[in-house]
Amino acid sequence: MALIVQKFGGTSVGNIERIKHVANIIKETKEKGHDVVVIVSAMAGETDRLIDLVKSVCTEPNERDMDFVVSTGEMVSAGLLSNALNCMGVPAISLTGWQAGIKTDRAFTKARILDIDTSRIKKHLNEGKVVIVTGFQGLTEEGEITTLGRGGSDTSAVAIAVALNADRCDIFTDVDGVYTADPRVVPEARKIPVISYEEMLELAGAGSKVLQIRSVEFAMKYNMPLRVRSTFKPHDEGTLVKEEDDTMEKVLVRGIAHNKNESRLTVVKVPDRPGIAAKLFEELGNNNISVDMIVQNVATDGYTDISFTVEKNDADKAEKIARKVAQEIGAKDVIRDDKIAKISVVGVGMRSHAGVASKVFKTLAQYGINIYMISTSEIKISVVIDEKFTELAVRVLHEAFELDKQGI
Ligand code: ADP
Ligand code: ASP
Ligand code: MG
Question: What domains are there in the chain, each with its CATH number?
């Protein structure tokens, strides 16, 4: 008998028929003699709808109010699923994030899990019940409701699996695994049977929304084996995300991710002296805005330009801060571009093989795609380009690295 955590995303619980289908998957697992803890997302489209509702009341919503409203989506699906199971004769109980003991920091709309008190979940498991927990939400020390950022139910699931020392964490979604690129963009993309935590971390960080990045961080830190699998083909093995092994470096590029969810801000004609970058990025950090790429040009005439990217959600706030700092430091202007995309090529094989960067640049040049920014890590190359070239760039790079053919 094992303790299994199963997470079902929004599409998987998108209507009543699907909720009943999910209940059957859980029932089958339970009948094999396993203990089951389930994490659910809100029904498909519900979180977007709730966010729009809050924004329709006020264009710059109070973040506490936002979380208060948006966290309700998960309660509906958890209650419906628990009801479906109870109705089928499988004893189940639904719990909110706070009833399940999920404690977070105070960063509304993107809170981090600090700790989980699993006593209530364990009590219900001991009673023989399936425990259904709302994903995406938690509670601060002061008793405030928080949410964990878009896609945060993945993180709820992995964090609960780690806290319970579960044998396995299965992420059920609308694709049957992690692919070499988003299958909605590249029809030739292939399913990856096994991927390392590091590669998955880079892909998730680069915009592959199949897993939220923090869920992979948790899994990697605590070595929790994760499986991404399809709700609609529940017996398919999906993709296993696990520790890197020797065979993995043989593959040069494991996958390609794209992200249209960032904006670029450029502070123009910044005086080139120590402390200026610190001032700008400290202010952004103090306001909980994470900066992704940063590029500073070589100074001419004692002035330089600093460009950086932030999530589109944070762009208004970041622009305000950048304009304020620009004025204080005597910079000339701030330019904002929302129509950008980041394309990232990822693989642990890059550690031991040269030439990936040049192939990326050459391929994009062949198709007339201009590169605005470049950043690299040991196992990733990212470029920022014009948003209108996103799909083309992903497809031509997928082909250039023969990801449709390669055996893994
Ligand atoms: P859920 O609601 O189950 O959490 P998401 O929509 O968050 O599902 O994530 C699944 C989606 O992620 C897929 O439908 C797919 O379009 C997208 N995706 C992006 N990159 C990849 C990838 N490399 N492999 C698989 N799916 C991907
Ligand atoms: N419902 C939340 C969202 O849409 C969390 C999740 O689905 O993981 O982002
Ligand atoms: Mg998701």
Answer: 3-174 (3.40.1160.10)
pLDDT tens profile 350-368: 988 889 999 999 999 999 9
How many Å lie between the centroid of ligand 3 and the Cα of residue 239?
15
pLDDT of 406 strictly over 90? no
Nearest C-alpha to atom 5 of ligand 2 is from which residue? Answer: 151
Write down the pLDDT at residue 301.
Answer: 86
Out of 182, 186, 226, 254, give the residue to mutate to test ligand 1, the one with the largest number of ligand atoms within 8 Å of its CB.
182
Residue nearest (by alpha carbon) to ligand 2 atom 8: 151
Residue ranges of the alpha helices (H) in 12-138?
A: 16-31, 46-57, 63-70, 72-87, 119-126
340 token code pair:
């950008």
Give the mean pLDDT of the chain.
95
Total H helices, total E strands in the chain? 12, 20
Q: pLDDT band at residue 247, thresholds of 50, 70 and 90? A: confident
38 vs 26: CA distance, rounded Å: 8
The residue contributing the CA closest to ligand 2 atom 9 is 150
Q: How far is the CA of 184 from the centre of ligand 1 (A)?
A: 9
